[in-house]
């Protein structure tokens, strides 16, 4: 709808509706009464030769209003100027460009966002300052492993990531034995209940990232010096409040209580009972293994809102074992030193013997000269 004031030039001189057209195809206005103050055009966006341009954030339809005065009756004169007035209509690309009711033909968010394979889950080992990925998988017992879970959503609406369940095993198989549960009951970091200081980092860097630390350990009576950590990751809409099924809770030993990364404190009370609602995850569901190489699972795509991701191996070194190695290495260093001293003594004795031999020869050669005299 285009509405034009009959006092087009603001001079008090009214124009005639018959002198106005719209667009390159010269569409005529609606029939109006002479007593009305405006002239109306009602045309479609693609009518009258209108042009359309697509920008980054809008649909732009362009046309023009033409005032082409013609003589009245038998006169051969006109009292107003010919004028061409550009008209531009802008519609946001993310909005509805029609005033009419629409019937959606797309599928709901939970279907389309994942069927397009735009969600990528990752689990990485990080340096202690969280600024970069850890360059070595080696740890000492007593160290803390810094793990960072992420979800890459592309251009989709904001999502909030949760670590639903984590288990450590001596092999990449999450069903292997022995195993140690790190996170359980939909986000309770149960490893922190023991003598460990394992906990989620508060606050999180963003809704799509969750960081936590795990005190390094090894399995008793197991000769393998490595572990793999498999975590079940899932997402919800960022605007959705955390609840018992979607949470990140750590145990505080000073207060002897659970506390959440975000949300009300009572969502963590079920961690004490070990019952936080209907299980949504099985340890036997398919998962993606993320080896230490750069071709980790963070480069793979998943078609669901949850996935199992494995990081590892984490190779641990026992500090007492390292001390024994150093003690065993000490005699070897001492032997090298003693060997060097021995060689020096031998060389010194050899030089002394050579000097003595030369001295005796010189004395023997000087005796005949004295006898002749």
UniProtKB/TrEMBL annotation:
GO MF entries: acrosin binding; structural constituent of egg coat
Record bears the keyword Nucleotide-binding: no
Domain of life: Eukaryota
Ranges for domain ZP: 1-256
Keywords assigned: Cell membrane, Cleavage on pair of basic residues, Disulfide bond, Extracellular matrix, Glycoprotein, Membrane, Pyrrolidone carboxylic acid, Secreted, Signal, Transmembrane, Transmembrane helix
GO cellular component term, pick one: plasma membrane
Transmembrane segments annotated in the record for this chain: 336-358
Location within or outside the cell: Zona pellucida; Cell membrane
Topological relation to the membrane, as annotated: Single-pass type I membrane protein
Entry annotated with the keyword Cell wall biogenesis/degradation: no
Post-translational modifications: Proteolytically cleaved before the transmembrane segment to yield the secreted ectodomain incorporated in the zona pellucida.
Main location: other
Gene Ontology BP terms: binding of sperm to zona pellucida; egg coat formation; positive regulation of acrosome reaction
Pfam families the record matches: Zona_pellucida, ZP-N
Assembly with partners or alone: Polymers of ZP2 and ZP3 organized into long filaments cross-linked by ZP1 homodimers. Interacts with ZP1 and ZP2.
Domain description: The ZP domain is involved in the polymerization of the ZP proteins to form the zona pellucida.
Entry function: Component of the zona pellucida, an extracellular matrix surrounding oocytes which mediates sperm binding, induction of the acrosome reaction and prevents post-fertilization polyspermy. The zona pellucida is composed of 3 to 4 glycoproteins, ZP1, ZP2, ZP3, and ZP4. ZP3 is essential for sperm binding and zona matrix formation.
Family the UniProt entry places it in: Belongs to the ZP domain family. ZPC subfamily.
Protein's UniProt name: Zona pellucida sperm-binding protein 3
Organism in which the protein naturally occurs: Pan troglodytes
